[in-house]
Amino acid sequence: MMPYKTIVTQFGEMVNYRNIIKIGIETNWEDAEISEDGTIKPDFEMVGTDINGNKIPMGIYDDPVESENAVKTIIDWFSTEAYAVYEIPQSQGADT
């Protein structure tokens, strides 16, 4: 039997990983910032989907590489039995 594991989101919510069926990245254009030179910069949001189909915001990242690395790290964590709690890492440049 696998031990109970908890994910702590960047927003301080605790999520039972057994209820998560999918974790991915969504590009958020709604909250995109426009720089002085007119460049539009979206956020990249890590989102978990639970067994009921509800989406759970887990973290916000500044670029797609950082967000994909965060997903890879949590997938690696899922495959181990070492720790009972995982905290979603903050973005290197985020003000969350």
Question: What features would you describe in this structure?
Answer:
16% of the residues lie in helices and 44% in strands. The protein is α+β, with helices and mostly antiparallel strands and 96 residues long. The protein has a domain at 19-81. The chain has a 3-stranded mixed sheet, with no helix packed on it. Strands 3-4-5 form a 3-stranded antiparallel sheet, covered by helices on one side. Strand 1 (6-8) and strand 2 (14-16) form a beta hairpin. The model has no long low-confidence stretch (mean pLDDT 85).
TL;DR?
With 96 residues, the protein is an alpha+beta fold. Helices cover 16% and strands 44% of the residues.
Q: How does the major sheet shape up?
A: 3 strands, mixed
The average pLDDT value, as a whole number, equals 85
The chain-level structural class is alpha+beta
Number of helices: 1
Rg from Cα:
14 Å
Please identify the oligomeric state: single chain
- Gap between N and C termini: 36 Å
Name the helix and strand elements from N-terminus to C-terminus, one letter apiece: EEEEEHE
List the uncertain runs: none
Count of distinct strands: 6
**How does the overall form come out from the CA principal axes?**
elongated
Beta fraction of the residues? 35-45%
**Residues in helices, as a percent range:** 10-25%
- Strand ordering within the main sheet: 2-1-6
